[in-house]
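ok so for the tutorial part 2 we go from a plain amino acid sequence to predicted structure tokens. step 1 is just haveing the sequence, like this:
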Amino acid sequence: MRALLQAIYSRYTDSAGLSGLVTGLYFDEAPQNTALPYMRYTIISDTTSKVFGLQDKEDVLIQFDIFSDDSSVGEAMDIYDALVDVYDDCELDVDGYSFVGMTRELVSVDRTDDSPRVWMIQVQYRVIISE
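step 2 — the prediction. this is what the tokens look like for a chain of 131 residues:
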């Protein structure tokens, strides 16, 4: 699993178009007082199965969260567009695994009621890798 997380982060750092729009990409939780806009990513689920009893396959659901305190949703949507450019149907180099695919499955846009109000876009990808 660590190899997959490293591959996702490496793809982010290799993309000036995405990494230049946010203050950082953090696993699971951003440090306290992190400047906005930023992104985080986490594992929603991870299942393993055998294909015809011959090969292990991991089916992992990854969620990216985009946070922006801009008054309009425009900044968050720009980050979303850059995220899609980087990860939609991409090929990840996952050390020790064969990469099968990465597909976007869900997008949700919301705004918190907190002060200051923050835009949050959640994007889920299904990643399949095999040993």
